[in-house]
Amino acid sequence: MTDTELKSKHRAMWASGDYPAVADLVAPLGPALVEAAGIGPGQRVLDVGAGTGNAALPAARTGADVTASDLTPELLRVGEQRSDTKLIWTEADAEALPFQDAEFDTVISCIGVMFAPHHERAAAELLRVCRPGGTIALASWTPEGFIGQMFAVLKPYAAAPPPGSTPPPRWGDPAHLASLFGERVTGVSARRHSLRVDHFGTAEAFADYFKRNYGPTIAVYRNIAADPERVAALDAALTDLARRFDVGDGAMDWEYLIWTGRRTA
Description:
Elements: H1 3-15, H2 19-25, H3 29-37, E1 44-48, H4 56-61, E2 65-70, H5 73-82, E3 88-91, E4 104-110, H6 119-129, E5 130-141, H7 146-154, H8 174-181, E6 185-197, H9 203-213, H10 215-223, H11 228-244, E7 246-248, E8 251-263
Parallel strand pairs: 1-2, 1-4, 2-3, 4-5
Antiparallel strand pairs: 5-8, 6-8, 7-8
Helix pairs in contact: 1-10, 7-11, 9-10, 9-11
């Protein structure tokens, strides 16, 4: 598969289902990331993998000059329609950003860049477009948390990943981020947090919701659609996962990592 074909496949995946509704479930992550990044008036801010604007919109409300970028134009259009403040919406590949070197004071990504398949390329681009002394701030699902474990459940049923790709939840591992950024950042902070999600009520409702609405889950089900036994097994595995993370009345805590660092000169 060529790189162009891979990116086209990713666009289609995130445009499937109803990702804006899923993004609304995790909306609190955006303001938390903006606060951790210290974004404020007059700063030049780039949000990579912005989706519908969970982080870009609260960043813009601080008075920052914000550009929201994403590979999937369908998500950007939703964000633009919802916008109550001024910012720029730009289609862009996280692994080949169409911006100048050192163009931004702060570069953020809220569960966005973690889904770029080639982590080294994406990290290099975040660094390139951030000015020396500027801030890079990321919110990512952890491997051990609920969403990270969901991807582990999906893996045996998914198509083989493209060569050179790395699982998305690795961005939620501080050691992996240290290997990606190394001495090119300083003043690193990495803190784990939990998001309480009480939307579903039952484990079965969660499995059905993600089966219908979340692009990566939809893609996996399409991969096994011709095998009813495997479909039933995945249904059961997702339901069991939700039960294991149930903290009462169908609510779950979804762990994520907020990581910040300053680009060295």
